[in-house]
Amino acid sequence: MLAALAEARYEVPSPIQSGVIPIALEGKDVLGQARTGTGKTAAFGIPIIETLPEGKGPHALILVPTRELAVQVRDELTKLSKGMGVQCVAIYGGKPIRGQMDKLKRHPQIVVGTPGRVIDHMTRNSLALDHLSVVVLDEADRMLDIGFRPDIEKILRRCPDDRQTMLLSATVPPPIERLANRYMRDPVKVDFSPTNISADTIEQHYFTVDGPKKMELLIRLLRREQPTKAIVFCRTKRGTEKLFQRLQKKTKLVRCIHGDLHQGARNRTISDFKANRYRILIATDVVGRGIDISDVTLIINYDVPEYSDDYVHRVGRTGRMGKEGVAYTFVTPEEGNQLTRIEMRIDKLLIRDEMEGFDPYVKTSVETSPVHSRDTPADGDAKEPEDGPPKKTPRRRHRRAL
């Protein structure tokens, strides 16, 4: 293990690792809370690898909310167990189930999976849970957010009663507490989430801009910041695809990822982004949680997220493991309430920013107002401004909610 950690260049444990590893090595149940990007995978992975019993597996089951996180956790555990002969398999939707069944027949010691696909294998009797000694719920709050609670409870009821259970989460709302009380035995609670839940290493700004002017602002911002790696978040799959098609006309160093893409394409997109084959990733919240890309320097919320917690996880893609990053959010004049909710959630005011030489407002008139016209899209997909001298427009103040 020490050799594997040295090769992975893990020299000093993060706070969550220092807190969880000794407790987990004693076999106690753990309820750990920490912000994403703080090393939670190694916090539960090292004790699992160190205490794996002999005999046919699987001995450890790790439940995660997304396919991308399943692949990431498997790769991390493979790196941490290098040279130890530990087999780790990832099972998730979007890939042929037959190939996964063949891998499970070899009785791997560790299985990482999404709840839905784990249920599929349990139903087909290709995944036996009789020999489990450890169960981990990673990103538990996210799994409950997207409706996995019934599947999780069904899986936990099938696991041996004398198992060790570890629950790791960025937040611990009441549903998580109830889950822990029901399925864990006197869990030791460790909380390493800072009082300010958005990292201090992340500068957080916002622009006020009318919807049809978002595209122009995005191009100007990317030119100004010149990021080595940037993620641009949209709210919908359709909006993500349309923005990608438009931005692709300006630069070839851009890709997009959303739930409608084939799993193979999603995996290639993430791996190419990590390998610096392109610089700008346009995404839905499918990468808002759990994806570990450590050198993202810029986050742009092209659309304000629907939920404040999604904002926290979006900006958490930068500033990981203490590195610096910057996040910008595009706010339309009608979205002041949502901006205020975000600021209340993170207990921090976002800094207002302005782009030199850029008028963020569409010219309005009594007869036809683009902001209120039914024919004008509000998602930033209107026609780009024509060339010519800029027209003076009345400046409107951005009003926040009280």
Report on this structure.
This protein has 402 residues and is α/β, with parallel strands linked by helices. The protein has 2 domains: 2-191, Rossmann fold (3-Layer(aba) Sandwich), CATH 3.40.50; 202-352, Rossmann fold (3-Layer(aba) Sandwich), CATH 3.40.50. Helices cover 35% and strands 16% of the residues. The chain is built from 14 helices and 14 strands. The protein has helices at residues 2-7, 15-25, 40-50, 67-80, 97-104, 115-123, 140-145, 149-158, 174-183, 214-225, 237-247, 263-274, 308-315, 336-346, and strands at 30-33, 60-63, 88-91, 110-113, 134-138, 164-169, 188-191, 202-208, 230-233, 254-257, 280-283, 298-301, 325-331, 351-352. It has a 7-stranded parallel β-sheet with strand order 3-4-2-5-6-1-7, sandwiched between helices. Helix 13 (308-315) links the parallel strand 12 and strand 13.
Question: Could you give a short description of this structure?
Answer:
The chain is α/β, with parallel strands linked by helices. It is globular. About 6% of the residues have low confidence.
Could you give the topology of this structure?
Blueprint: H1 2-7, H2 15-25, E1 30-33, H3 40-50, E2 60-63, H4 67-80, E3 88-91, H5 97-104, E4 110-113, H6 115-123, E5 134-138, H7 140-145, H8 149-158, E6 164-169, H9 174-183, E7 188-191, E8 202-208, H10 214-225, E9 230-233, H11 237-247, E10 254-257, H12 263-274, E11 280-283, E12 298-301, H13 308-315, E13 325-331, H14 336-346, E14 351-352
Parallel strand pairs: 1-6, 1-7, 2-4, 2-5, 3-4, 5-6, 8-13, 8-14, 9-11, 9-12, 10-11, 12-13
Helix pairs in contact: 2-3, 3-4, 6-8, 13-14
